[in-house]
Amino acid sequence: MTENAYLIPLLPFIGFVMIVFALRWKEKVAAGFSIAMILSSWVFSIIVLIETIGRDGAPYEAFFYITSFDTLNFEIGILIDSLTAMMLIVVSTVASCVQIYSLGYMKDDPRFSRFFAYLSLFCFSMLGLVIANNFFMIFIFWELVGLTSYLLIGFWFEKKSASDAGKKAFITTRIGDLGMIVGLLLIAGGCGTFNYNEIFSSVAAGTLSPTMLTTGLIFLFAGAVGKSAQFPLHVWLPDAMEGPTPVSALIHAATMVVAGVYLVARAMPLFESSATASMVVAIIGITTSVMAASIGLVQNDIKRVLAYSTVSQLGYMIMALGLYGYDTAMGEHSPGYYAGTFHLMTHAFFKALLFLGAGSVIHAVHTNNIQEMGGLLPKMKITAWTFMIASLSISGIFPFAGFWSKDEIVATASTHPVFMFFTLAVAFMTAFYMWRLCFLTFWGKPRDQHRFDHAHESPRSMSWPLAFLGILAVGAGWVGMPWLKAGFASFVYSGEAYKPHADYMLMGVSTVVAVSGIGLAWLMYAKQVISPDKMVARFKPIHKLLLNKYYFDEIYDFIIIRPVLAFGRYMWTFDARIVDGLVNGVAWLVMIWSDIKMWFDKWIIDGAVNGAGWVISSTSSLLRLVQTGAVQFYALFILASIVILAVVKYEVVYNDVSWPVLSIILLAGLYLLSLVSKSVAEKAKTAAAATATDSGEEEK
Amino acid sequence: MQIPILSWLVFVPLIGMVAVMLIPKERVSAIRWTATIFSGIAMILSFWLTWEYFVNYSDTAAMAFVEGPYDWIPTLHVEYFLGCDGISVPLLALTGLLSLISIIASFGIKERVKEYFAFFLLLEVGMMGVFVALDFFLFYVFWEIMLVPMYFLIGIWGGPRKEYAAIKFFLYTLFGSIFMLVSILILYFNAEPHTLNMMTLMQTAPGMTHTLQMVCFIFFFIAFAIKVPVWPFHTWLPDAHVEAPTAVSVILAGVLLKMGTYGMLRISWPMFPDALRSLSFWIAVLGVIAIIYGALVSLAQKDMKKLVAYSSVSHMGYCMLALAAFSSTQAIAGCMFQMISHGLITGALFLLVGVLYDRAHTREIAVFGGLGSKLPIYTGLMVFFSMASLGLPGMSGFISEFMIFVGAFGALNKTLVGIAILGVVLGAAYMLRLVQNVFLGDFNLERWGGLTEINGRELVTVVPLVILTLYLGIYPKQLNMLMSATIENMINLMAR
Fold first, then answer.
1. pTM (2 decimals)?
2. Which residues of chain A lie closer than 8 angstroms to B307, CB-CB?
3. Of A69, A164, A185, the CB nearest to B329
């Protein structure tokens, strides 16, 4: 089966294609086909897991190139090792449960088959992500899970809040992806390959300088920060609860959000070489964990409490992995890698169960607000009990699954006092807010009688997956009991000699912390010995800060979103006014210039032409006066001319008169002539006028 | 004797134009189908050419299907010289495909149908010609031929400000062309014996002095940059796009913009490697500015078409960034991929915006909302191409952007490329904003209840683009194989 493991992601993809192109109109068939596909993947995943255990976790790799540029190959392939095998099981198990659950939950939705199409597409992307053998391929599927997350958060897109949340999720995770691209370019680009193993051996051989590696890893980790909703990019996950609850369970609790943790685990051989990068990872992890847990203390929306809980638990895993990388870089042993991946698995089961349980409750009472619930235990037995089992599990109570994995995380932190303190603080807060939720929802008296009256246990398609996950929420941790010879630890370390030892001291401490958290919740919300309202009044400013989630959304809105949008608008004005203004300005200058040219043309060039014409015409009109048509005048003119010429000739020949004088004489002569001709012309004019009058009279 | 396939490719649309002009203008349907058939033949020829090239010639960098050089105007040493290689073949196929699609998308044109299709076919002649010409004079002629039909297509069939947009487009491009002409003349007179043969000049031009190279390079750059358009020469583009009819926008974004980058890659980059080396950093800066600036301005747009137009500015910025990283195979291949994929994706986005505009008679983003529940298929397609545009893996845009980043990151200043990668986030922001405001949210039944789903003819225009976008995104190997020898050769030429 391992050779054909590519079928595991491919089957849900076939489901997606079939629903979109063939089964869309037959809702039941579409859902059935989708479930059949994911169940087949699930069975195959189990076989692959068994085969992997049989190989002692030895990796199996197969790939082909989709293209290569120069020496850089872009491959699509599969890598099956213990980490992948575990992830395949986690993803396909939760996905199967969620798809079956959705049959009931989404029953009356008008876009029922589309929902299953999206779920199938998601399963394909997520399974592809974990089965990938190289960073290029993981990035492809990384983005595809982001797409399906976007589509599913905004599934009820008529709601503005849902479409806003989808957009926010996509863009926020993309900011992380931006870092991831840079990280990939630095690391994969530096090594000249995307393949995991080639990169690991290349880095081990010292291809990258330590600074380059550290920088690259921190950038790469930014991708994980985005996808796994770590501080400071965690803001999208609580909003993502706008999606249908099965989606929250599958994508935003159990699988997609752990992709970041998976990435860090996958790149662990690199983090092991950089203490700085690992420390950054650990610090981000614990910061997130504390921050999210504290916000979870005061929220009233059942899904949001679970969302902050998810963020907090993801922080746990990230911290464990970071500490492991740091300790290993420092040459010390640490159970962190095992703790992180182990917790990833147990958390996936119990958190999916919590979300599905919450969905069942919401389905029954049609509200998310826990203040309007209460006393639901007798009405919804399966839901309530499985929800409480999961709550015990996440609180870390023996022998539930969460106990074993959380214990390893505590063990990892135990060598770092500061981390240890905060880890225990988070454990306390987790136990408190989970049981606050339980008590407010299922115990006590109904606070909204109307809603309570309508509540009912959910149909079997919904309650059976709850029961199944309930079993896993108890038993999934047993594979990691420290007393086992070949337990989870030896599996994820691929047979390497790491033997977790049972530290009863630590177990005791963490149990005490968890129990006291539950106890406080019991005192406040079940027994009501301590009034929650008084607590609120006492810690007013802190309560307000937590209720408003440390004002992250407001701060981001103020320092990022608004400025970017404003800058965009400013750039748009700049573009229209300045850049385009420059173009139009140049055009305008050309127009002005051509206007000037036109004026010049009209008045100077054409003026010269017209001027010449005017000179000629005015001269000729002057000369015309000479042409009177009277013979006597011509005779006089000839006579005068002869006299003048004679005078001129005489003067020139005999008196040697200079030309200026002659000219004056000539001009004087011409003037005389014109005087004469003028008088003649006037006479002719009066004569002509007289004739005109005559002819006019004749006509009359 | 080989069939002169390239000549056929160029002149089949011309024959089609003549045929269209011979049909009486009342027979609208005959005109449409004649245009469709002729551009269909051209498309089949271009596809066949691509296949032939892929099978027989893709392992060498030499020009294939060469015709000529035949003397055309001997006194000026002008020759009729055609040929194609790995960078022109994909663009020819893109031109063939988008031309046919645009002509089918133009069936809705009601007025002056005959002139419209005649101009469109003439436009196709020019586009095909530019990608196959190997003689500068011929290249210049084809380059200018395109302006005329484009001017009329925008100026007659355009929107309210069509005259302004058409004149702006025409003058702006012509302004650039003049610089190109000067540069061509410099090349002509510097070659001994005088020649306009690109292949010969490719060998001799790098021998020119640095100053002369710089002058030629910058002059060519102005001409090509206006066409791309490179920031800050881009402002004709939004105006032209907004005013142009849908099909013309498709051609404008899909093919015309590529001529700028094609010209750089074909002519000015390998011919003036010295100048390229001196200026590559600044070209990269212009590219990065275009990426970020285009994306930011897109974010502020109220008109769908203008948003897509500014996204083009941003996407072509990636091409410029890639071209600046001229020493990297990945970058140059990424640039070619980006040209093709931008042609497919943006072409499709314009088609889809046109589909909505035909029904709603407005493109204002704010007046829509919730169309997803009324028009599921249309919404699906629009979301698909929005995702493609923002570079989602599995689609062609991702491959090109990723390769450009890989190539540029290795060859250029890392901080600069890091800033460019910001465009990925901004791209998501403006595309998702569009999707949310138009397709998600409450549906205004009163106002938009009458909108009809995308029809069969419109689907025919969009579906091929869906298939190609996915094909190039999932299996880029074949296109890469087709180009790789040529690109390798280009890189060697640029490294001279």
1. 0.87
2. none
3. A69
